[in-house]
Amino acid sequence: MPSPAAIGHQIVHGGPKLRQHCIIDDSVLRQIEAASAFAPLHMPSTLSVIRFALENFPGVPQVACFDTTFHSGLPEVARVLPIPRKLQSEGILRYGFHGLSIESIVHQLGNDLPNRVVVAHLGNGASITAVKGGRSVDTSMGLTPTGGVIMGTRSGDLDPGVLVYLLREKKFDAAMLEALVDRRSGLLGISGVGSDMRRLHEAASSNTDAALAVEMFCYGVRKQIAAMIAALDGVDLIVFTGGIGENDAQARAAICEGLSWIGALNSTNRETCARAFPSTRPDRAARFGLLRQRRMSKSHVIPASCYRTRIGLLEVGARAG
């Protein structure tokens, strides 16, 4: 088997200093290790794969492809968190995630990409992103992949006072809080049944907590989609992707039922997707499209990022020489 020309690594978080895809060297590896605090669910396994690749493919360029890169140009009004500026300067801000998935969707749509798109990446992790002119302008996840909408085992947005109460009155420490919001909450915490939407649908008819978990998930996604539509001043296309977004027609239908005011229609035919159609409201001049399914394919995004990063490095070297 020939040696690869380059190896690309999907990395959830690069911290405040690594905002663009880059070649992994000792300095970059140290910064990725330091960023583990921002995504403890994801980073340990990522780092083990990187170390394995570095050891077994010496001399082959290793490219870090960050899920935060697509959101690196967020406008200040969306990026800045309402905390003291000193903390902001230390990198505590909105990063956003699922960037490689959204970049893939933008690439797949190509010339058909409209100006205002909302991407609902719905899986065990879930986020909603507003894309204007091909760029992220707002997104539901924040400093970490724990924020935003309810997820499989993650809480999503939570009143900070809950955490303060648990620290003060229930004597939680940081590890206990982390386990709570990352591993014991979300669909699992609400239902007591599990984090898999398929299992919850099966249980919903006889288990009110399972039914509530599904309802809360769809309700929360619908609210976030509406918020992103406000950020975009309208919408031309909604894209559903991720395991739930692509495959769960029941969840999509529940989400879209609450968006009838913008003319959202939902096809339950898995073989078709409506790219654009006239609004159901005759008084709306704009056309609204619902892409009810878009397979999340990062198979071209990471190689393309590897190629651009490697070529950029070679060009810099050539100019320096």
Strand content: 5-15%
Give the class-level CATH name of the domain at 110-296.
Answer: Alpha Beta
Radius of gyration computed on alpha carbons:
21 Å
What is the count of β-strands?
8
SSE topology string: EEHHEHHHEEEHHHHHEHHEH
Q: What's the assembly state of these chains?
A: single chain
Q: What is the CATH H-level superfamily of the domain at 110-296?
A: ATPase, nucleotide binding domain
Give the N-terminus to C-terminus distance in angstroms.
Answer: 33 Å
Mean of residue pLDDT values: 87
Named CATH architecture of the domain at 110-296: 2-Layer Sandwich
* Share of residues in helices: 40-55%
- Overall body shape: globular
**Fold-level CATH name of the domain at 110-296:** Nucleotidyltransferase, domain 5
* Helical stretch tally: 13
Biggest sheet record:
5 strands, mixed
Structural class by SSE content: alpha/beta
Residue ranges: pLDDT <50 for 5 or more in a row? Answer: 268-289, 314-321
Spatial arrangement of strands, main beta sheet: 6-5-4-7-8
Characteristics of this structure?
Nucleotidyltransferase, domain 5, 8 strands, five-stranded mixed β-sheet, alpha/beta, disordered C terminus, three-stranded mixed β-sheet, 321 residues
In a nutshell, what does this entry contain?
This protein is an alpha/beta fold.
Question: Could you explain the architecture of this structure?
Answer:
The protein has helices at 26-34, 43-56, 76-79, 85-89, 99-109, 160-169, 174-183, 186-191, 197-204, 208-232, 242-247, 249-257, 301-320, and strands at residues 7-11, 22-23, 62-66, 116-122, 126-132, 135-139, 237-241, 289-291. The chain has 321 residues and is of the alpha/beta class. It has a domain at 110-296: ATPase, nucleotide binding domain (Nucleotidyltransferase, domain 5, 2-Layer Sandwich). The protein has a five-stranded mixed sheet with strand order 6-5-4-7-8, with helices on both faces.
